[in-house]
Design a protein that fits this description.
Layout (H helix, E strand, L loop, with lengths): L1 H12 L5 H20 L13 H12 L9 H4 L2 H16 L1 H11 L6 H10 L8 H31 L1 H16 L20 H15 L2 H15 L8 H25 L11 H14 L15 H13 L12 H15 L6 E2 L2 E2 L2 H28 L5 H12 L14 H16 L1 H9 L19
Antiparallel strand pairs: 1-2
Length: 461
């Protein structure tokens, strides 16, 4: 009777659940389903199946497109387990509502207002205009790019792993790279270290990481501009697109130069490589820190400056509405532009002849502070759980989890179960979205406050 009453109350309240909560609960449901599948005996190569915490950690890492693992993906998980992981990566990368919309398209079903609202929330858009068309373009572009990447990678892997083994690895790594997941099937704990000087592997994976991490809105904006140009019409790129491209380019260049300079003579990383491979490895490290998680260098062997730069890049992450995590490039851009405007004594921050509203600045500041706070709390908790753990590797691990990156200083598998739970929460927090989770937990009815207090003049600085 109590169960029936609970279901009845849920059905009455179902229409009142906000889109943010639906997205958050949807990811949670996918993670739990993935954990149950990975707990099955058929999911592991060894008999008996995986412990539930291992399955839950892996399912969270895959769905949240992170890449942190407790065991090597190829040697620990069976073919069935690897396929489950690949499916979770694809669902997590595209977003649950984008994947669910495939069924509606196949059945020629009309997508209602509620579904459109969910798509807007899942893709971090501002309005409903053209959202269904955009989802169609996302699906087509995703599968086309992943297919192209799989073809290029398969050409390289077939000669090493045979026809089917090479094609399978090409598909798996293409999906993992595009979704910024960082899972690999190399059968070692060195990720892609064996291919650090191979442009046929590194360049396609870097391209997939960057394209998947710039955001679906940027795709649509570029497509719109090209379509109008073919018709002879003039069109400008959106300010959001310009800012994403600018910040992404600056971060990649800054990271690549920093790694090249800091690691050039380091015998454990770039020191023994020829100049061309040093440049390629430095560029790959810079790109993969943007929430991808593949590694061609040993993260624990990096010099302290490189470890610090990697941590900063992981904290920023990718761009809004993409397959990436982190506090996002636009957040960093808004904060930097606002700081420059304040230092120059301007009353309004501007970018590309457009002003930034105070709401945008406050939202960016909130996201950055919440992300920083989540890392601080997590590192504090892990420090309590790991009595013999080194401090900075735990910071690196926590930022990697929050930014859904997947890079590690060989620490993940050595942590206790309590620390693994902390990382699970961080990965979920980072993927679903810092602001989305804040809204989902703190959502209240009503608009502006009825009471307006007089402003206080504080001394800043």
């Amino acid at each position: 009777m109590k169960l029936r009453r609970a279901i009845w109350h849920y059905m009455r309240r179902r229409k009142k659940i906000s889109p943010t909560r639906v997205v958050a609960l949807g990811f949670l449901a996918v993670i739990l389903l993935g954990a149950l599948l990975l707990s099955l005996p058929a999911a592991t190569r060894a008999p008996g199946g995986a412990p539930f915490l291992t399955a839950l950690f892996t399912a969270t890492s895959a769905t949240c497109v992170t890449g942190l693992v407790l065991h090597d993906t190829f040697t620990y998980w069976s073919l069935f387990g690897q396929i489950v992981i690949l499916a979770l990566i694809q669902i997590g990368g595209l977003g649950l509502m984008t994947v669910v919309s495939i069924l509606s398209f196949l059945l020629h079903r009309t997508i209602g207002l509620r579904e459109r609202l969910l798509m807007v929330q899942a893709l971090s858009l501002n309005d409903l205009t053209g959202v269904v068309r955009m989802v169609r373009h996302i699906l087509f572009g995703t599968f086309a790019l992943e297919g192209l990447g799989a073809c290029v990678l398969s050409i390289r892997f077939v000669g090493e792993y045979g026809l089917w083994g090479g094609i399978y690895r090409g598909v798996f790594h293409s999906v993992s790279a595009f979704c910024n997941a960082g899972f690999d099937l190399m059968g070692t704990n060195d990720s892609l270290a064996a291919y650090r000087g191979d442009p046929l592997v590194c360049l396609p994976i870097m391209a997939l990481i960057v394209i998947g991490g710039i955001g679906f809105f940027v795709w649509e904006d570029v497509y719109r501009k090209l379509r109008l140009r073919r018709r002879g019409l003039q069109s400008r790129l959106h300010v959001h697109t310009k800012l994403v491209v600018l910040i992404s380019g600056v971060l990649i260049a800054f990271g690549a130069v920093s790694f090249l300079v800091a690691e050039y003579e380091n015998p454990s990383t770039l020191g023994a490589l020829p100049p061309g491979e040093k440049i390629l490895a430095s560029l790959f490290q810079s790109v993969t820190c943007r929430t991808a998680g593949f590694a061609t260098l040993d993260q624990a062997a990096l010099t302290p400056p490189s470890q610090l730069v990697s941590t900063l890049l992981m904290f920023v992450g990718g761009s809004p509405g993409s397959t990436a995590g982190g506090v996002k490039t636009v957040t960093l851009g808004v904060l930097v532009i606002s700081a420059i405007a304040v230092m120059r004594g301007k009353s309004q921050a501007t970018i590309f002849a457009r002003g930034l509203s105070s709401k945008q600045v406050l939202a960016s500041l909130s996201i950055a502070m919440v992300g920083f706070g989540a890392v601080v709390v997590s590192v504090t908790a892990m420090s309590l759980f790991e009595s013999n753990g080194a401090f900075f590797p735990m910071v690196f691990e926590a930022v990697s989890a929050m930014g859904t990156v997947g890079l590690s200083m060989n620490l993940t598998a050595t942590l206790t179960g309590a620390s693994h739970v902390v990382l699970i929460l961080l990965m979920y927090f980072g993927r679903v979205g810092l602001l989305t989770i804040g809204i989902a937990l703190l959502l209240r009815r009503g608009g502006q406050s009825r009471v307006q207090f007089p402003e206080s003049k504080l001394i800043i600085g």
